[in-house]
Specification:
Blueprint lengths: L13 E5 L4 E3 L4 E2 L2 E6 L2 E7 L2 E8 L4 E2 L12 E2 L3 E4 L3 E6 L1 H8 L4 H38 L11 E11 L8 E8 L3 E6 L14 E7 L5 E13 L6 E10 L1 H11 L2
Antiparallel strand pairs: 1-10, 2-9, 3-8, 4-7, 4-10, 5-6, 5-9, 11-12, 11-14, 12-13, 13-16, 14-15, 15-16
Length: 261
């Protein structure tokens, strides 16, 4: 690789246009060109554990692929990250040898500062990827501990609200009392004692009507579907996971205000 013949025409600066969504460089691919953004916005990212890790969003005047410039011994190497156009983008394409010729004429102090700056940037990017990888693994561990956590779309607030519940379609007219332990705009976690209402239909898929009063003394009522049943901290307690089927505009407004940070 060290004896690559570079012709004068290879050093010519050219301009390329990329449409929104186009991949400019791809992580892992071999490349030699350096790109200077003239117009547009570009996302720099890497991948870790099948997740995209954003590193930066850059615009006009910024350079992409500059690490190759400092790789004197091997001008062709794998890209350490990817770059994608976030909007229509115009770039200048440089050959690293063109910059190398100017770099060699720079004072030693400026060369040193340039080398150190690139080293720091590379170290920070690797740290971001490492921390993101750790965060993803922790999230996966939480999913395994609580399978329903991955399906929750809304912020959940821990509460301790007494509720009254009755089945919608069951022939049973029994009601159930218990505590709402957490609640969101999408559902709630209920704590009950089955012994207090042994004929209540505790079956996944059953639909109920629940009413409660929020700490701000606002009443809410909602229809919901039972999606999970788990054993509580003691044998006589069950934790029911319910998802909302219908929430009136009045109840949704009251609950929304209550859930605000």
């Amino acid at each position: 690789m060290n004896n690559i013949e570079i012709k004068d025409e290879d050093l010519a600066i050219v301009r390329l246009k990329f449409k929104k969504g186009d991949l400019i460089i791809k992580e892992g691919d071999y490349g030699v060109s350096i790109y200077k953004i003239l117009e547009g916005l570009v996302s720099i990212f890497t991948e870790a554990e099948d997740a995209v890790v954003p590193l930066a969003t850059i615009g006009p005047g910024t350079v992409i692929g500059e690490k190759i410039f400092f790789n004197v011994n091997n001008l062709i190497e794998r890209r350490s990250s990817s770059a994608r156009a976030l909007e229509d983008t115009l770039v200048e394409v440089w050959h690293p040898r063109l910059l190398q010729l100017e770099y060699e004429q720079m004072p030693p102090v400026i060369k040193y500062l340039a080398d150190q700056t690139l080293t720091h940037i590379d170290r920070m990017n690797k740290l971001v990827v490492k921390l993101t990888d750790q965060k993803i693994k922790k999230r996966e561990q939480r999913k395994e501990a609580d399978p329903w956590a991955a399906k929750r779309r809304y912020y959940r607030k821990r509460v301790n609200l007494p509720f009254l519940c009755s089945p919608i379609y069951s022939s049973s007219k029994s009601t159930l009392k218990g505590l709402i332990k957490d609640i969101s705009l999408g559902g709630a976690g209920l704590e009950i004692r089955p012994i207090l209402s042994p004929v209540f239909p505790y079956r996944v898929g059953e639909e109920f009507l629940i009413s409660t009063t929020l700490p701000n003394e606002r009443n809410i009522e909602f229809s919901c579907r039972l999606v999970s049943i788990k054993e509580g901290k003691s044998r006589d307690i069950r934790i029911l996971g319910v998802s909302f089927i219908e929430l009136s505009e009045h109840s949704a407004k009251n609950l929304g205000f209550f859930l605000m940070p």
